[in-house]
Automatic annotation (TrEMBL):
Keywords: Methyltransferase, Restriction system, S-adenosyl-L-methionine, Transferase. The keyword Zinc-finger does not apply. One of its GO terms (molecular function) is methyltransferase activity. This is Uncharacterized protein.
Length: 131
């Protein structure tokens, strides 16, 4: 595994293409213990920087690399902004692979119906390139 440093200074079209990019973004804005500012918060907003790097690499390699992208964060990402932040994560990962795809907003669910599900979860997303 290679760590390249500050994500805001990395450009996906200027680094060696890789099969998989794994990343996390600061959790303070998504965590149940935090202020719940969501992806628009000053900390968790770094998620968009990682997406930028992925898209830059995909453009530079004609969509070949990376084949996979995996995002890690806290379970609070599922409920941040009523679940909209997690939908945004999925949509941005999907757009990195196929720009015209969309992730529908759920019509309802446990949180909307007043029944939250308190099981711990692993949060990850994946974009797959066609080769």
């Amino acid at each position: 595994m290679i760590h390249l440093g500050d994500i805001t200074k990395i450009h996906g079209d200027q680094i060696e293409p890789v099969d998989c990019i794994t990343f996390g973004s600061p959790c303070q804005d998504l965590s149940m213990a935090g202020l719940r500012a969501g992806l628009e918060g000053k900390n968790s907003g770094l998620f968009t920087e990682a997406i930028r790097v992925i898209v830059e690499m995909r453009v530079a390699t004609n969509g070949m690399y990376p084949a996979f992208a995996i995002w890690e964060n806290v379970p609070g990402a599922f409920s941040s902004n009523g679940g909209e932040d997690f939908r945004t994560v999925l949509e941005k990962l999907a757009h990195a692979a196929q720009p015209d795809v969309s992730i529908p907003r759920p019509a309802g669910g446990a949180m909307v119906q007043g029944r939250s599900n308190h099981r711990k979860r692993l949060v990850s997303g994946m974009a797959v390139a066609q080769r």
